[in-house]
Amino acid sequence: MYVILVYDVEQKRTAKMLKLCRRYLHWIQNSVFEGEITEAKLQELIHRARRLIDPETDSLIIFTSRHERWLDKQIIGKEKSSTDNFL
Amino acid sequence: MYVILVYDVEQKRTAKMLKLCRRYLHWIQNSVFEGEITEAKLQELIHRARRLIDPETDSLIIFTSRHERWLDKQIIGKEKSSTDNFL
To answer: Which InterPro entries match (chains A, B) (predicted)?
Structure first.
């Protein structure tokens, strides 16, 4: 399945969250990731993310689509991932 | 069409960007919006956003889908929009 993941976590957890998400998906902007992932891997990612976040303050939004072709992507301005992908 | 919009702009432009996007879409997280919008309205939003951003530093990613039903949305942690929608 195709996934878009966006997180909003407190500053002190951003590095861990970034690292976790990059193990599963492609980083495309600040706190935005996308990619093809299996249902099992997505559940693993969600499970790990739940252990990382504080549900009182942090949030994670995951959009899933069975096919990437059902979505078009357009980037206005700077394409982050092409230049800043080396954290 | 159904749209997910995510922006990453410099601090000094966030308030203007937030205000602009909220005129067209629903705010669901920090810098993430979604909603049904016509192609004409989306083009208007993009046009206005282009005048606001600095393309050297800021970016705007827009995912579009012809039907909202092609996407599932899952929120882990805090549901921002339900409580913080009164900026």
So the answer is: CRISPR_associated_Cas2, Virulence_VapD/CRISPR_Cas2
